[in-house]
Amino acid sequence: MNIEALLLSFRLASCVSAILFVVGVPLAYWLAFSPWRWKFLPEAVVALPLVLPPTVLGFYMLLAMGPRGPLGKFWQAAFGHGLAFTFTGLVIASVLYSLPFAVQPLVASFEAVDRKLLDASAVLGAGRVRTFAHVILPLSIPGIVTALVLSFAHTLGEFGVVLMVGGNLEGVTRTVSIDIYDRVQSLDYASANSTALLLLVISFVVLAAVYGINRRARRRVWLPWTSK
Amino acid sequence: MSATLKARVRKMRHGDASSSFLLDIDVEAPPGITILFGPSGAGKSTLLDCIAGLTQPDAGRIAVGGEVLFDSGENVNVQPQHRQIAYVFQTLALFPHMTVEANVAYGLRDVQEQTKSSRIAEILQMFRVERLRARKPREISGGERQRVALARSLVTLPRLLLLDEPLTGLDAELKTSIIDDLRCWNAANKIPILYVTHSREEVDALGECVIALEHGTIVSQGTPREVLDAPRRWRLAQAAGFENLLSGTVLDLREPDGVMRLRLADAACEIEVPLGHAVPGDRVSVAIRAGDILLATEPPRALSARNVLEGKIVSLERRGSLVAARVDCGAVFTVHITPGAERTLELAAETKVWLVLKTHSCHFVED
Predict the structure, then answer these.
(1) Distance CA B332, CA B234 (A)
(2) What CATH superfamily classification does B5-229 receive?
(3) ipTM of this model?
(4) Is A134 part of a structural domain of the chain?
């Protein structure tokens, strides 16, 4: 079992979940409450990674992050090094790849908050920020937990995007799924199996926890395989 | 100048090519309770939403006591959180994740901590929900929730209170007691209260001023009786809603006074009613609302009302927020009183009482 790859995956998933929470909450708020008529366009963009092959997303991310890509050029100018085949590049690509898994549960739970409560809050003198912090957010806790856990679990299990953008650099971009692939390629089935089994158990525990929390909250929360 | 609400609101039905108005209304509500009465879909809730700032009218002007909250001509549109208007929704919209106390404290963010806790304590006591402080809304009863919603709105000392059928689903006794507490609060604070309802019973119970809405416009305005009882000349069928329909014989006409005297049934009981198309000796009917009759336990004196009848109570029966007393004065009358009056006057069967009827509360019925 490759502990280094496992730790790297956990580090990546933690970074991605944290960033997705910070980025996802305002984005989800806007998607849930904006009256803009073209809102469905950004909604569709957010949902793209759900249907796109990870290699397609990874391919375009690689082009963007490469030395001649806009993101790569910007990064080179700002920080003195490129993005492709780095941990940071991997984080950026993973954030995009897991975006719907964070944003959609948040949107669903924000939208599920009774609008009359928001009206009541406004009439009682609260502005948008106060209403969000004291009414919407506390009532969306199951959705927030779902968003965090799903983005974590989804990042943990990604393969195609990592391979395209990060390559296979030990300790930098070799995540646990790449490591398993490597071991299978070199016919080291025993070692591949122990890592794969661990990942399987972790994923199951995480999802069981999400379902358990949702059940206790007695609220329907978005999960990708429950919404068609 | 008292803080009267003046609202002129026009709102078009959305996406309707026929350009029909959802709302086209001009209302004025002085301090005290004004009832907005009308069937569902008449635009009552939309009007409240416009006044609270939750919906924007297409045109009009809304002001409370001279302060303009909305004016389409001058591009004024104060945000709901800055209007200082309290609004109790039909669903109450208590915050489910907060305790009763936190709900009530919600609108007091900018108030100093010490003042805040004394105001919360005071309003919780006023609405009799002090002991529920630490409970969540789902842990208390429907009536208690209604009281908490009122307390949460009123603790902010609003300049206007909007109530959208806040007492639906409560039994009559609870309703009466909550309304009494609300009246009591407003005796000290004197703000306009717009009370939306589609229940005639609530209109009768709340009294004061009624505005009747239909299809987004005002169809009539005045006291409950003026609004609910127009037109003036009655047909028997129309009088069917009256609790007292009595037949009698015309004794004499007093044309200069615009009245005539009737002997009711074959009893010795005589009343004065407005002049109708009749001659002495005619058999006629009069209709009297049970809520229009005053009941006294001592002989009333020095009244403007012309008809004082002596009798005794036959029975007392609770009906919704009212007590219906049957009183035998020769002819039997039904009189509506409040449960509070029943208690204070210590009424019971066989109690000797006097009924007071205003002449113009007696409606002459044409057959």
Answers:
(1) 22
(2) P-loop containing nucleotide triphosphate hydrolases (3.40.50.300)
(3) 0.79
(4) yes
For helices A70-79 and A54-65, give the axis angle rounded to 10 degrees.
50
Per residue in A164-205, pLDDT tens? 888 878 878 888 888 888 899 999 999 899 888 988 898 888
Task: Give A-chain residues touching B153 at CB under 8 angstroms.
Answer: 123-124
Contacts of A115 in chain B (CB under 8 A): none
Nearest CA in chain A to B162: A123
- Of the listed ranges A136-145, B221-230, B324-333, the least confidently predicted one is B221-230
Q: Please, where in chain B does CATH 2.40.50.100 lie? A: 234-366
**Position of tokens 């009343």?**
B271
How many Å lie between the alpha carbon of B353 and the closest alpha carbon of chain A? 48
Residue in A117, A125, A127 nearest the CB of B107: A125
Note the pLDDT tens digit of each residue in B192-234.
999 998 777 777 777 678 888 877 888 778 877 676 654 333 4
Residues in chain B with CB shorter than 8 Å from the CB of A117 are 93, 95
